[in-house]
């Protein structure tokens, strides 16, 4: 995704004679087209290696989440349905602290905070030293992500305008990176690495937008006292993370015994304040140093310690309960405006928004697609961004209190995501077969 200028033509192999005039400056030697900036190129070998490791983890996480969601859907439509729904609605937790909530609520507000912590950590990495640290490498995925949010939201509103259901406009705007990367590895393993990195960065920015939407549009009746009190554990957390980063990076139990309890207290206070508790995970991640030798070590320690919790426990449990929709129950799928708006947003709005904004940038600025990337593949990746599972289901829970509306939206998210995979395959599978010898980085 780098916007580095194209290289000029190679110099003559003969040495320059002594006293000969200097070679023409690049601005003279290059053609007008060569002065354009490539987009969707890899930033650096180090960055590419880090992205490769992250993508491998996302593939594994995506497969696990798929299985968990499938099991939840089967349980909700089997003889086990009564026990499944009873378990999801069982309330646990201390009443005195206002945390006596259902198991399903714990999964969405509690366990997903771990997922959002990992998202926040990746966001900070990108802003400090990754593709989002420079304007030239950030402009395309950032702009494309906004396009991929705006058009699905407008598509949904077009079908629900003037009704209470319009409150769910943010449901089709999210991209599930774990699902998307896992599917990409299955349907297009030979896709150019630059496009994989583009999808990852696009999804990271998409998550940032989703986090902002949740914090701004889905927060009501803020209690400022708990929010003010949350500053105490957050300040302690930040001080310890920066002051003792080297020791914590080498310690086996330090992050668990010192920082985790502070994070839990901050999460509980965020929950009590009325701000969605998952935002606490993002805030905590942004307080972790990610630059410098010691900061990088601590960030990597956190990633190794907490990613298995996120990909192997937190998100799968959430998916298991969120995907439990009884077909033929309270749902009005597929002809309800909620369902139509979500599916149109995910399947059509996402790829058009992403591809259109990218085309505008390449048409009216100095950016151009890397030679290894075709528009067909870019549209395919844009369609894959329509796999909006985890965050879309979370926004569904925040949007609707009516069980019928919520179940309709959940089914629409799941079906729309599956259709988005099919659309993506139409653009990517054929292209991958057309270039069977093209080398690509493994996940």
Automatic annotation (TrEMBL):
Keyword 4Fe-4S among UniProt keywords: no
InterPro entries linked to this entry: Na/H_antiporter_dom_sf, NhaA
Keyword Transmembrane helix: yes
Record keywords, A-Z: Antiport, Cell membrane, Ion transport, Membrane, Sodium, Sodium transport, Transmembrane, Transmembrane helix, Transport
One of the protein's GO biological processes: regulation of pH
GO molecular function, one term: sodium:proton antiporter activity
Membrane-crossing residue ranges in chain numbering: 54-76, 103-123, 135-159, 165-186, 198-218, 224-241, 253-269, 275-292, 313-332, 338-361, 373-396, 408-429
Topological type in the membrane: Multi-pass membrane protein
Region (Disordered): 1-38
HAMAP family: NhaA (MF_01844)
Biological role: Na(+)/H(+) antiporter that extrudes sodium in exchange for external protons.
Official protein name in the record: Na(+)/H(+) antiporter NhaA
Originating organism: Leucobacter luti
The gene coding this protein: nhaA
């Amino acid at each position: 995704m780098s916007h580095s200028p194209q290289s000029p033509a190679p110099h003559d192999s003969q040495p320059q004679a002594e006293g000969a005039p200097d070679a023409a400056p690049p601005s003279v030697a290059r053609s007008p087209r060569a002065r354009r900036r490539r987009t969707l190129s890899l930033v650096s070998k180090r960055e590419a290696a880090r992205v490769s490791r992250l993508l491998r983890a996302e593939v594994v996480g995506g497969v696990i989440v798929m299985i968990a969601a499938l099991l939840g859907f089967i349980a909700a439509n089997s003889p086990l349905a009564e026990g499944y729904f009873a378990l999801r609605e069982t309330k646990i937790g201390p009443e005195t602290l206002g945390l006596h909530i259902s198991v399903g609520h714990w999964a969405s507000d509690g366990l997903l905070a771990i997922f959002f912590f990992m998202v926040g950590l990746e966001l900070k990495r990108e802003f400090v030293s990754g593709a989002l640290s420079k304007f030239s490498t950030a402009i395309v995925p950032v702009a494309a992500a906004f396009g991929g949010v705006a058009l699905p939201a407008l598509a949904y509103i077009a079908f629900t305008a003037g009704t209470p259901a319009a409150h769910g406009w943010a449901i089709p705007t999210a991209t599930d990176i774990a699902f998307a990367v896992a599917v990409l590895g299955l349907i297009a393993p030979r896709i150019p690495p630059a496009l994989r990195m583009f999808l990852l960065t696009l999804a990271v920015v998409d998550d940032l937008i989703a986090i902002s939407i949740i914090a701004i549009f889905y927060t009501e009746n803020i209690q400022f006292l708990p929010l003010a009190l949350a500053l105490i554990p957050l300040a302690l957390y930040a001080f310890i993370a920066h002051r003792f980063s080297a020791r914590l990076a080498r310690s086996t139990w330090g992050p668990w015994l010192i920082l985790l309890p502070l994070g839990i207290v901050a999460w509980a206070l965020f929950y009590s304040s009325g701000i969605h508790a998952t935002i606490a995970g993002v805030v905590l991640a942004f307080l972790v140093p990610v630059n410098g030798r010691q900061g990088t070590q601590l960030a990597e320690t956190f990633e190794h310690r907490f990613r298995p919790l996120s990909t192997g426990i937190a998100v799968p449990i959430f998916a298991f309960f969120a995907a439990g929709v009884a077909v033929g129950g309270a749902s009005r799928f597929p002809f309800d405006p909620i369902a139509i708006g979500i599916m149109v947003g995910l399947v059509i709005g996402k790829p058009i928004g992403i591809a259109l904004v990218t085309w505008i940038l390449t048409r009216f600025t100095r950016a151009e697609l890397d030679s290894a990337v075709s528009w067909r593949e870019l549209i395919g990746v844009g369609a894959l961004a329509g796999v909006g599972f985890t965050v879309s289901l979370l926004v569904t829970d925040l949007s609707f209190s009516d069980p019928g509306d919520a179940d309709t939206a959940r089914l629409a998210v799941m079906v729309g995501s599956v259709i988005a995979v099919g659309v993506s395959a139409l653009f990517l599978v054929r292209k991958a077969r057309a270039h069977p010898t093209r080398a690509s980085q493994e996940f």
